[in-house]
Amino acid sequence: MEEEExxxxxxxxxxxGVGVWELGRRIGKKVFSWYVLKIIVLxxxxxxxxxxxxxxxxxxxxxxxxxxxxxxxxxxxCMLFLVxxxxxxxxxxxxxxxxxxxxxxxxxxxxxxxxxEANYTIVKAYxxxxxxxxxxxxCVGIPVLMALSWFILHSRFRLIHYIAVGVCLLGVxxxxxxxxLAGREQGKASDMLIGDALVIxxxxxxxxxxxxxxxxxxxxxxxxxxxxxxxxxxxxxxLQLIIVEYTAIGNIQWEWKVGxxxxxxxxxxxxxxxLMPVVMRITSATSVNxxxxxxxxxxxxFGLFLFGYHFSVLYILAFAVxxxxxxxxxxxxxxxxxxxxxxxxxxxxxxxxKEEELEExxxxxxxxxxxLSAMRDV
Length: 378
What we know:
Blueprint: H1 2-11, H2 13-31, H3 34-63, H4 69-89, H5 97-125, H6 131-137, H7 141-152, E1 155-156, H8 159-182, H9 192-219, H10 222-244, H11 246-250, H12 256-282, H13 285-291, H14 295-306, H15 313-331, E2 335-336, H16 341-350, H17 355-360, H18 369-377
């Protein structure tokens, strides 16, 4: 009798009301948690830094006719080298610069090439295609990133994550529609096929770089990632700089305003590279990429005053939709699938771990040198 009464009470309007209230309370507890708030704030800081690089680059190109994306990237990699690579040089043992270069140099050259060319191809695409095409096709990087995370990082996504990504992409579509209505769709499409291909290539290279970054900062150290990127990124971008921008650099009319714009760009880019691993360590590469979708909207806000852009209410709607999707994604954590022992052993051999250390290591444990060293000493 008591069970029947409990069942009837659960099905009663009052019981349904309590159930809905409890569901709403749980959702609110997830969405409005300190963890989600922290990710939102950090994500928007990254967006503002990207906005700073975009605005300074456009101001240099429009006002001073300076179009040197590779030079600007080269300056950033040099700053990473001066701070993080030298930092690694003072370390000893397996965490030191010389050991890392000796054991993993070819992996970090691959990472540097992906990162340098991702930056270059996206900027270069604006010369051939339209703003709308860049904004839309740049989103290709998100499903590519999720696929790489699935296979390489063994990340597993829940239904809410796919819905959240769809909501964010809907927000991007709203932003693109606002651009068209506001007249930002300018006639730069000299060869859209080449431009669109460059955007897709750049987005895919960004996805590769971001997955590598997430793996390194979660399993190794942030300093190793930034130090190696500074070392090999300086080499790759410097070599490409000599090839593609030698004439453009010689034509720059240097004055103090141009120097200030270069300095602001360098500070924003260096801060972006330094902060992104911190955010990625507590979230994921996919989450970070969803959060920075608002960077174009912040650039628009500055463009209203600097470049004479026209405002549209749809921009506010686009921002709201992207943020809703971002919050939905962050409210539920992903999980990592169990890694087969054979695959784990192969990965550890690639990282030059000793066989006896591997035998002591549980199957689900990721490669963390400090912990393994402690286990060996016991």
